[in-house]
């Protein structure tokens, strides 16, 4: 369990993190979202004990960070931003070093390294110096290092940055497959990643926590949540669509000719729309329910803050 | 303690994985030989001891030790690995000690590899080997003091070149503070207490008797205290600046 109260970090007179408070319980997979320079990495650095907060308190596993930092660090696996690693070591030597630091010995150590190497598919670069690896492989080495001791708390700063689509998928699966009683915190700029792997979203901008809820709740903030989009094979009278009970608004995309109907109060309108279409015999060739557009919600939340 | 040895082994491996250790040892061997034979006239003196060899050590260390110390923290900070290191269950002190001992071992290895010099004087004459061993120990101690200064300068900056230059300057001050030129500049107007204090800070003054094989408590203590002080300063600096 992570408990953060009024966490603040100043660099000179610049406030990078501004009074964050939150609790994270085992089983929660938290996605940190926010524009560049929002304070995500700075928050993670404080959670891992690398940076001392200017103000506020962090408690992890019932210990205050400043007293129990060494014990706390044993519970945490951390992938710092940019996945730093000792370039002169080979992947295997590096993982061996981490295993020793983590107190893994002999057979145990070998077994864990084998498992992790399989999990993030490092076998082909095992004996290459890390400085010669491609960006994606470096990131994977960083990831392997973070999960090597099977930590209760996993803090990953942009784990999928620079990975190919297959590897992104792999990493998301890996996070989903972690035991259900762990805490995972990931920061990312890929919004879909959050709905794919997280069960809680925090949006930070200019150091402040602006949103803290489930990905579903984030989607619901979108105008497009449960909106119905349709396309017709030839032009027909669509004015009736906007009149349907429960439809608040209608928009026509000039370029694609798609018509989007926005529901009143996030209610289901699909059945009403299909009824109408059948009644009027409209020549609809495409019809789907929107999931909600995250980029739009993200923009709205974070720009409202920066505009102030 | 076990963490110190884990860091120690990693650092040592890194010295030999990059050519740093090989280059260092080679240059040390060549230079110490050149100095001893051509400038110190080890051979022509006709005396069976290694005094000319040891007398050049402060000047050799002045440039070579900062070169081996400069990367210790600068590189960690530049590449960001310090963030990894400091979030592993290793204390700053353990990391510091591990790094120091690894570099100090490379310096020790360089000294040991000068053994042909020792064989030569033993072949040519009949030196007092106790004195020579004491001088070797003294030289290694002094190298440790140079190293502690170099590592502290490396903790100050991300830039290895700046770390090197700073270390050379600070080491230079410690070396020359006991030399005739500096002391002469103070003679005549400064009280003798000041002059004695300046001289007592000098590597040269303290190494002089060690090189002659006299292991006095105050000389050994001087180098040990110097090491401790500079390492402690590094510890404070790293804690302070690690995230900058
Ligand atoms: N060591 C430092 N000294 C001064 N300012 C810093 C330092 N570290 C971070 N900052 C500032 O703090 C702010 C927050 O930075 P942080 O790295 O936490 O952002 P972020 O949310 O991780 O951004 P990104 O998405 O680009 O990774 C930035 O304005 C940054 O310039
Ligand atoms: Mg960041």
How would you describe this protein?
- Chain B: InterPro entries: ABC-2_transporter_component (IPR051449).
- Chain B: The chain crosses the membrane at residues 12-38, 58-74, 95-119, 131-149, 161-183, 220-238.
- Chain B: It comes from Fluctibacter halophilus.
- Chain B: It is a multi-pass membrane protein.
- Chain B: Keywords: Cell membrane, Membrane, Transmembrane, Transmembrane helix.
- The complex is a heterodimer of chains A (308) and B (244).
- Chain A is α/β, with parallel strands linked by helices and 308 residues long.
- Chain A has 2 domains: 2-219, Rossmann fold; 228-290, Alpha-Beta Plaits.
- Helices cover 37% and strands 27% of the residues of chain A.
- Chain A has 11 helices and 14 strands.
- Chain A has helices at residues 40-47, 65-75, 91-101, 106-119, 135-147, 165-177, 191-197, 215-220, 239-243, 270-280, 294-307, and strands at 2-11, 14-24, 29-33, 55-60, 63-64, 76-79, 153-157, 183-187, 200-205, 208-213, 228-232, 247-252, 259-263, 284-289.
- In chain A, the strands form 3 sheets. Chain A has a 6-stranded mixed β-sheet with strand order 6-7-8-3-9-10, with helices on both faces.
- In chain A, a hairpin with a 2-residue loop joins strand 9 (200-205) and strand 10 (208-213).
- Chain B is mainly alpha-helical and 244 residues long.
- Chain B has one domain.
- Chain B has helices at residues 2-17, 20-39, 51-55, 57-69, 71-79, 81-87, 92-112, 115-124, 129-156, 160-176, 180-186, 192-200, 203-211, 217-241.
- In chain B, helix 5 (71-79) runs parallel beside helix 9 (129-156), helix 7 crosses helix 9 (129-156) and helix 9 packs antiparallel against helix 13.
- The two termini of chain B are 28 Å apart.
- The mean pLDDT of chain B is 89.
- The structure holds adenosine-5'-triphosphate (ATP) and magnesium ion (MG).
- Adenosine-5'-triphosphate is lined by residues 11, 14, 16, 34, 36-42, 81 of chain A.
- The site of adenosine-5'-triphosphate has 12 residues of chain A, from strand 2 and helix 1.
